[in-house]
Amino acid sequence: MRDAEQVWFNGGGSQVEAMERAGAAVAREAARFAIGRGILMLAGPGNNGGDAYVAARLLSEAGHDVAVAALGGKTEGTAAEMRMRWHGETVSLEEAVPRPIVIDGLFGTGVARELTKDVKTYLHHIVNNAQFSLAIDLPSGLETDSGDDLGAATMDVTVAVGSLKPAHMLGAGLVRCGHVLLADIGIPVSGPIWSLGRPQLSAPAVDAHKYSRGMVLVVEGDMPGASRLCARAALHGGAGYVMLAGTGSAEAGPDALVHRRVEDAGALRNALEDERIGAVVIGPGLGRSDAAHAKLDAVLESPHRAVIDGDALTLLGFETADRLSRRDALSVLTPHAGEFGRMFEGGEGGKIARTRAAAARSGATIVHKGPDTVIADGDGAIVANSGSSWLSTAGTGDVLAGLVGARIAAGGSAGQAVWLHGRAAQLAGPAFAADDLIAHIAPAMKECL
Ligand SMILES: NC(=O)C1=CN([C@@H]2O[C@H](COP(=O)(O)OP(=O)(O)OC[C@H]3O[C@@H](n4cnc5c(N)ncnc54)[C@H](OP(=O)(O)O)[C@@H]3O)[C@@H](O)[C@H]2O)[C@@H](O)CC1
Ligand SMILES: Nc1ncnc2c1ncn2[C@@H]1O[C@H](COP(=O)(O)OP(=O)(O)O)[C@@H](O)[C@H]1O
Ligand SMILES: [K+]
Where does (6S)-NADPHX bind (predicted)? Predict the structure, then answer.
């Protein structure tokens, strides 16, 4: 957004115009929710405060009862001009009395440090005593690029100005922003970060056969239940043929699953000679023994697309970037936060920046899981909110790994799998077990055809 604004200003766009549009968008949304109730506008010293003064003026002109609570501090440039154009009631933040509607324009993308104790106390008091709260661009005290909480209050609605910022989809932002509305202010925005939308999938071609649909080999581990969840998810994720390679019982269904007896890494290498394999999944329930490590080596040395999950990620540890950058075929890593930390220590910035850096170092696609899943590769990053915190139950990661295997075996993407996984969870409703999620993959897929 900062870059887009700069390009727009360089091309003759004016800051006054941008701020008028931002303030107008905020006023429009606030008016819809205010329905005649008194409004308290919190205005900070920067451009976020500038937007607030514009919105206050427009709402007041439209007949709303508006008071401004201003935070001290030096206001300069366009924001100072907007402050001067406001002629209504103004008090200091300390003097402000809560009103039914609060609009928070203290800080936006320019928040630079923790809110002071005083500012935080006033802000929370006013927001908590309002009937409805709306943040301009970001809840004040939410760090833009990471979603880290520097003292923000929890808002009902946030009006994102011009484009979503990472904090609208990451970390504490998931709770603090409330419902996020996007206001177009006529500044074209493009960049390497997107939010995940519903994918467009197609039914198999008329002349499809099981191998052309995508064949997935799942390496069975010490915990065969995890591997089976993964293999079943691959079957329902659209794969034409799913083989479970290990020593577990073939009696544990489903019958459509092909069991191949694979005792050790040598036998796995033989199985991997099959050129029809579209993707290999290793990691769910794998275990961390030497035998597991040898199987992982066999997969990494194979020419197949690979999904690397769970224990396999921990086995790779800090060697991940080195090992994977030597692979020619696509590798998709699916770590949760703990596994990510065991592979890529430290790193600068928020989750998006750290995941992109890891993808660049390893040459892999990285699905960095959590309520704010970040999918990064050399082209950029996609952020996905699954929309179901019920996913926080054992085994759902195994289901995701199988889905990723099915999608990439069919020439699709990890993003498709993440969307299907999240949507299946929404359709499954509350308190499901990972097994139950699988039955909801097909209905989720139906929405994409
Ligand atoms: N660019 C544009 O034209 C457009 C921008 N737009 C709007 O501008 C917003 C970005 O504005 P911005 O860059 O001025 O930053 P902003 O969020 O107002 O905060 C900076 C001010 O706060 C202060 N401050 C920071 N942290 C603090 C703390 N913890 N405690 C106390 N003070 C603190 C900081 O002071 P300093 O750090 O210098 O001491 C500075 O004075 C953006 O979110 C959108 O709403 C739209 O109008 C569209 C056009
Ligand atoms: N609070 C949450 N909200 C949304 N999705 C979540 C949440 N917690 C976990 N998930 C998702 O659930 C899955 C859990 O995977 P993982 O942690 O590997 O679990 P397991 O290893 O038990 O299968 C991931 O897809 C993750 O993104
Ligand atoms: K704000």
Answer: 226, 285, 336, 398
